[in-house]
Design goal:
Blueprint (H helix, E strand, L loop, with lengths): L2 H7 L7 E3 L5 E3 L10 E5 L3 H13 L5 E6 L15 H9 L3 H7 L3 E3 L1 E5 L9 E5 L12 H4 L8 H5 L2 H6 L19 E3 L2 H15 L3 E4 L2 E6 L5 E6 L3 E4 L2 E4 L6 H6 L4 E3 L8 E7 L12 E5 L3 E7 L4 E7 L6 H16 L1 H6 L3 E4 L3 E3 L3 E2 L2 E3 L5 E2 L6 H15 L5 H31 L7 H6 L7 H9 L19 H10 L15 H21 L3 H11 L5
Parallel strand pairs: 3-4, 3-13, 4-9, 6-16, 13-22
Antiparallel strand pairs: 1-2, 5-8, 6-7, 10-11, 11-12, 14-20, 15-18, 15-19, 16-17, 17-18, 20-23, 21-22
The protein binds flavin-adenine dinucleotide (FAD).
Length: 545
């Protein structure tokens, strides 16, 4: 039955009537209608507000988005590193990049630097930059770089970004318009400021309806769909599609529907995080434009610079160390920056992590996004990007009516399962390539029983040919094969026989290596230090697009 024929047959008082911005009547789905027009998001952390913004902006005038947030349960308040995808997300939502820098304490992120992951040597480090190797879709430069691997590391040979990060430079100029970049970039941000910033924008600019109350009960239709949620302060809220963004509690998908949680701690062991915020020694200290990740005895420490402070945290496996030892490693790490006295006295927050995800992510008329869907350690900052990706998938393939929802949900589940599997494999790659044997943690990480089968197969393949485009099975892979190259070669692994070296491309490869060197020199002359550019943006603003 089409929507048009349905409206003719139904008496009007069965419908909610809305008016759009031109005062045209928009008919919302009624309890008897099959149309999906009322989206109810439960949860107001980064997941809830990003999802609200993405769906409301993509479906403006077509759906009414309501977000319910508990006044009693705070968002988790961590999650400070994003991917470059956040630029297109903020642009889609209609946020000004200048406002974002001014209000979220944000800085630029151009990738991650991994230190001491391969060995204990102080010189052991490599970059996973956000820019792919030069002409990546035309030529695989890795086999041509291999003969020179003792002279120059892979990332520096094929891309300028690692060298630019080492120089502390920003990825764009003050004259580059909002969201444009000279080099590819994402952000570091204050998670405590990000959700309120999105909240204000979504309510004021995207007509998102905000309800501050606790969801206390979930009410079902005869077919098992959620009909409404009961709140303690605002009564029942009825909807056609519910999105569970309630964080680790997973109130709708986990608790109400009982969708199983698949633990992944047999592959990725880290289950505890200790987080601390440290000041810069001076307001003029430069801000690193990469996340620094330094391997420890049973985990690793993240170090993220935003405008007003650094966020530092130790993620570790409680099966391989004690909390006291992990805390001591964290305090030793921050000591050079803050001094012995402050390092010993600073308050540290403990966060438990249960690595894994739900078996499916969309059941009946309820999808879960964010921590409610799952969480794996933040090694490559995959949580916010997965939120963006999930919300965009829902917004782009929004089921116009209930009868099309199940097939959309099925495909959503299949795509998300693939992404989780690939994320887990990619994170595990950082561990299995280690040559460290100093603790059981590193030894256990290399045991074959902890390595997913598909990753084992790829590792076997990469002995003979470089990771490259052929390894990508989906059109949109979260980690392109270029990311595998950066980790694989960054951790000093090489291929025995450069099987995919195409000698007819030798000349092109040599030119690209030379051009990369020149680009680094040119960029070093024009790009500004990260902090200087951010201060300029806050003062003058970036050119709007
Ligand atoms: C140590 C650590 C480091 C991380 N680092 C990164 C990183 O660098 N990059 C990255 O991308 N991600 C990172 N993450 C993940 C990131 O923090 C989360 O994915 C992100 O904050 C989204 O959280 P959320 O909105 O799903 O959940 P939460 O922030 O927990 O929000 C849950 C919301 O649900 C609401 N709620 C709960 N129950 C009810 C109820 N009954 N009624 C109404 N409302 C309710 C709460 O009020 C809250 O608003 C990190 C996570 C951890 C633990």
């Amino acid at each position: 039955m089409t929507a048009a024929s349905f409206t003719l047959k139904c008496p009007f008082d069965l419908f909610d009537i809305l008016f759009d911005k031109n005062y045209n009547k928009v008919v919302r789905g009624s309890p008897m209608s099959d149309q999906v027009t009322r989206v109810v998001i439960v949860g107001g952390g980064s997941a809830g507000w990003l999802t609200a913004g993405i769906i409301a902006a993509s479906r403006l005038g077509q759906v009414q988005v309501t977000l319910i947030e508990s006044p009693d349960i705070s968002p988790i308040g961590v999650g400070e590193g994003t991917w470059p995808t956040m630029r297109s997300t903020l642009q889609l939502i209609g946020v000004s990049e200048t406002d974002f820098f001014r209000e979220c304490d944000a800085s630029f992120k151009q990738g991650s630097k991994f230190s001491r992951w391969t060995s204990l040597s102080a010189e052991d480090d490599y970059y996973h930059p956000f820019t792919v190797p030069a002409k990546y879709h035309e030529i695989d430069l890795a086999p041509f770089w291999l003969p020179f691997k003792e002279k120059i590391n892979f990332a520096n040979a094929v891309c300028p970004q690692g060298a630019i990060c080492d120089l502390g430079l920003a990825p764009k100029l003050i004259t580059t318009p909002e969201y444009g970049g000279v080099l590819n970039y994402g952000y570091h941000l204050d998670a405590g400021k990000f959700a309120p910033f999105l909240h204000k924008h979504c309510v004021e600019k995207l007509d998102v309806n905000y309800i501050r109350a606790n969801v206390t009960q979930i009410n079902s239709r005869d077919n098992g769909d959620i009909q409404s949620v009961t709140t303690d302060l605002q009564g029942d809220v009825t909807g056609d599609l519910f999105i569970d963004c309630t964080g680790l509690g997973s109130l709708l998908l986990g608790k109400h529907y009982g969708i199983a949680f698949i633990a992944r701690n047999n592959i990725l062991f880290n289950d505890t995080a200790l987080a601390v915020q440290i000041p810069y020694s001076s307001t003029t200290d430069n801000i690193a434009s990469h996340t620094l990740s330094t391997a420890q005895t049973a985990g690793w420490i993240w170090d993220i610079g935003i405008q007003s402070r650094r966020g530092v945290g130790h993620v570790f496996s409680s099966a391989h160390t004690t909390i006291e030892r992990a805390e001591q490693e964290l305090r030793s790490y921050i000591q050079p920056a803050v001094g012995e006295k402050m390092a010993e006295s600073m308050a540290i927050r403990k966060i438990s992590i249960n690595p894994g995800h739900r078996e499916i992510f969309w059941y009946k008329n309820c999808a879960a996004i964010g921590l409610a869907a799952g969480f794996i350690e933040p090694l490559e900052a995959t949580a916010l990007v997965l939120i963006e990706l999930s919300a965009k998938m829902i917004a782009d393939q929004f089921p116009a009516n209930r009868s099309t929802m199940d097939i959309v949900a099925k495909r959503f589940n299949s795509a998300l399962s693939h992404h989780w599997q690939r994320i887990i494999e990619f994170l595990k790659l950082h561990y299995v390539l280690t040559k460290r044997t100093d603790t059981d943690y590193w030894i256990d990480n290399c045991r074959s029983e902890s390595i997913p089968e598909n990753l084992q197969e790829l590792l076997e393949l990469w002995k003979f040919q470089s990771p490259w485009l052929h390894d990508e099975t989906l059109r949109i892979e979260m980690f392109p094969s270029a990311s595998y190259q950066y980790i694989y070669y960054g951790m000093s692994h090489t291929i025995d026989a450069p099987g995919n070296k195409n000698n007819s491309k030798l000349h092109q490869a040599e030119n690209l290596f030379m051009e990369n060197g020149k680009t680094i020199q040119q960029l070093a002359k024009v790009l500004q230090p990260n902090r200087e550019l951010i201060e300029k943006i806050k003062e003058h603003g970036l050119q709007k697009i």
